[in-house]
Amino acid sequence: MSSSGPFCTAVEAKRLVENLLSDLRTLSTEARKKHSQVKEAAESGLVKIKNISTASNEQNLLTNIRCASAELLQPLILGCSTRNARLVQVSLQAIQKMVQHRVIESASAHIIVNELWHLMEAECEELRVLQTLTPLVSTELLVTGQWLAKCLVMCFRLNFAKDPIVINTASATVRQMVNCVYERVIQEDGLKGYDMSTIHQTVRIHAKAPPPALRPCALDGYMLFH
């Protein structure tokens, strides 16, 4: 059983590389006629992934992809920015895979959140936006604070979309996000060991300010309903 972990990681890394190569090839092909900038970025991403794959072994492949995540995201963000349905679909599909394989860094996650916001405002691929938000929030601590709040606002706004499927999905996504936030609090061990009387006094005096002793996940949980 002890060897299954590294084996699974190696298989997952190989699968991620294959999927990203496939998505970037598709992006390059679909963007060929009208979106040359996306095409060039996708081809650059293909070269980057191939170089990383060649220079890496099974143990450090995912780590090396994570280190290059900002560069690898560039063609995907550009694809989303076109608002072309097909390019957005392919780009979000690749982003979801990167998030699920935990190869996105926090700074890059913020870029993704902003692009999802723009897609929401443009009413472009709303269902896929929601499908991307779910793993983005539930994977590690990629989005916290204002970025987590922005993800929740997107879900609330998509509750007023025109498509009933989008509305139902948005409602379900909000519930998932709230559950995720409080699961984080439990894992972080919340306020254990802190002076509760001091926190209560702070809340009374500064009604809108969070207690200063809260840890990051507990702070997110507190701010959800304050």
From TrEMBL:
InterPro entries named in the record: DCB_dom
Pfam families: DCB
Lineage of the organism: Eukaryota, Metazoa, Ecdysozoa, Nematoda, Chromadorea
Protein name (record): Mon2/Sec7/BIG1-like dimerisation and cyclophilin-binding domain-containing protein
Species, as recorded: Wuchereria bancrofti
Domain annotation Mon2/Sec7/BIG1-like dimerisation and cyclophilin-binding: ranges: 13-189
